[in-house]
Design goal:
24 helices, globular, mainly alpha, 477 residues
């Protein structure tokens, strides 16, 4: 039997482009399911790896299983997020936010408030998904009533929620970044101020400016009245229905409890809240957690449509898609496709600016190709670490900033990624319709690339500083 090998650069490039072609044709022309497209790509890589490179299929499977094991906590959390969406609607939390949003928010301020509120909540909780499926849905309902296009409102919501998720010191994204780099989440947070911090400020100003194009004349008075009547007539909207949200925020901010049990606890509290204030049985609330909330007799077709969603079962297709994506990423890694491409890229990188430009582009590109933010972050950090540290003398925290600025928010934009599917399902629109308005995603990337070419050296801690820090920690130990 011939000895196994990994693919060379030209093989890797052809395979990579073939997979991109399959994904694009499937998504744009053939309209085939994303999971099916990823499955075809995985089969293509596996076939070439086994028959041409003589790699054992079991070796490919082992690499895929490693990916699934690493992602299992995320899969579990997806299930809990489904329960959040269903239970928070059924208990009145989401309807309460939607009702008072329609009553109090001026159309001019909607985009800015949506961006700001979701950013604050997501940063406090460290979770974009539960923020989108709860408060994001409510703000989409407000947008409809105020005559603001839903794609614009969804873009502001995604900007805020995923900005908080990638920047929050208690989020899984910075935690993953810290885990693979050895740099603390709080230090990564502060180092992202010139990019994500300034980017958030610019995005907020843009949402504020665009919002002034919407006036009171844009409000559909009849529709707003219909929605308000439907919400107040269907739900008991007293302040106490916000308990699931408030308790989750308090536990996330003031305790060191893990995020998953905190969010699960909010589901349990939502079940109790719904039983008390919405006069639903415990079994009805549990059904809302599993199968989703159902609102069918509010008198408003818009309210019925917006608030009939959620539940663990509604995320089954998302979980399947994530599993297929992880298998695909495992096959790519074992066959050496990305390694071969990165090795060739490293030879053309001659300056710090080019390094940051290319590492930014590949961080984004890998999300498009693997549909996984985690895979992109892990692979890009692994592939670029030596270039940043040894060739260009840069501290690892600089690579942390680049990867964290670029990959996470595209998880809500790439149509076949789990975050984008979740958001598009929550808002009832395609990811591509709100993608142009996720300004807090694009601005930090642009700023990071500009800094790479013209930024002052003091913005970039050096590899010597990193070694000195490690020596100091060793001496203290």
């Amino acid at each position: 039997m011939k000895t196994s090998r990994k693919v060379n650069f030209w093989e890797a490039l052809i395979l990579f482009l073939a997979c991109v072609l399959v994904m694009l044709l499937g998504a744009i022309s053939l309209k085939t399911a994303t999971g099916a497209n990823l499955g075809i790509c995985a089969a293509l890589i596996a076939t070439y790896a086994c028959f041409v490179c003589r790699i054992q299929f079991n070796d490919l499977i082992k690499e895929a299983v490693k990916n699934v094991q690493r992602a299992f906590p995320s899969i579990l959390f997806i299930m809990i997020v489904g329960a959040v969406a269903g239970s928070w609607i059924a208990c009145g939390t989401v309807p309460f936010i939607m009702y008072w949003g329609l009553r109090l928010i001026n159309p001019k301020m909607l985009l800015f408030i949506t961006f700001l509120v979701l950013a604050i909540v997501s940063m406090a909780t460290g979770q974009a998904w539960s923020t989108i499926t709860s408060i994001g849905v409510a703000m989409a309902g407000v947008a409809i009533g105020l005559g603001v296009p839903v794609p614009l409102a969804a873009g502001a919501a995604v900007s805020g929620a995923f900005l908080g998720d990638k920047w929050s010191p208690i989020s899984d994204v910075p935690a993953l970044n810290a885990g693979i780099s050895g740099v603390s989440t709080f230090r990564i947070f502060s180092h992202m101020m010139p990019t994500s911090g300034l980017g958030a400020l610019i995005a907020g100003v843009l949402y504020l400016i665009v919002g002034f194009f919407f006036t009171a004349d844009s409000i559909d008075v009849a529709l707003t009245a219909e929605m308000l009547n439907g919400l107040s007539g269907t739900f008991n909207l007293n302040f106490l229905v916000l308990l699931p949200l408030l308790v989750m925020l308090a536990l996330s901010i003031f305790t060191k409890l893990p995020t998953t049990p905190v969010v699960f606890g909010s589901v349990v509290l939502a079940v109790i809240t719904g039983a008390i204030f919405q006069r639903k049985s415990i079994l009805e609330m549990i059904d809302a957690c599993w199968n989703g909330a159902v609102v069918s007799n509010s008198g408003s077709e818009v309210v019925d449509k917006l608030l009939t969603k959620g539940g663990v079962s509604s995320f089954a297709s998302l979980i399947i898609l994530l599993l297929i994506a992880l298998v695909f990423a495992g096959f790519l890694a074992r066959a050496g496709v990305l390694d071969a491409i990165m090795e060739r890229l490293s030879k053309i990188i001659k300056s710090r600016g080019t390094l940051i430009l290319i590492s930014s582009l590949t961080s984004v590109l890998m999300v498009w190709c693997t549909s996984s933010v985690y895979v992109s972050m892990i692979l890009n950090f692994t592939l670029y670490q030596k270039l940043y540290c040894e060739k260009f003398g840069l501290h690892r925290i600089n690579l942390c900033r680049t990867v964290n600025d670029c990959a996470p928010m595209f998880g809500a934009i790439v149509p076949w990624s789990n975050g984008a599917i979740l958001a598009s399902t929550a808002f009832g629109i395609s990811a591509m319709s709100y993608a142009p308005y996720v300004w807090a995603c694009y601005i930090p990337i642009i700023l990071g690339i500009i800094y790479g070419y013209v930024g002052k050296d003091k913005m970039y801690p050096t590899y010597e500083q990193e070694l000195a820090e490690e020596a100091a920690v060793g001496a203290e130990g």
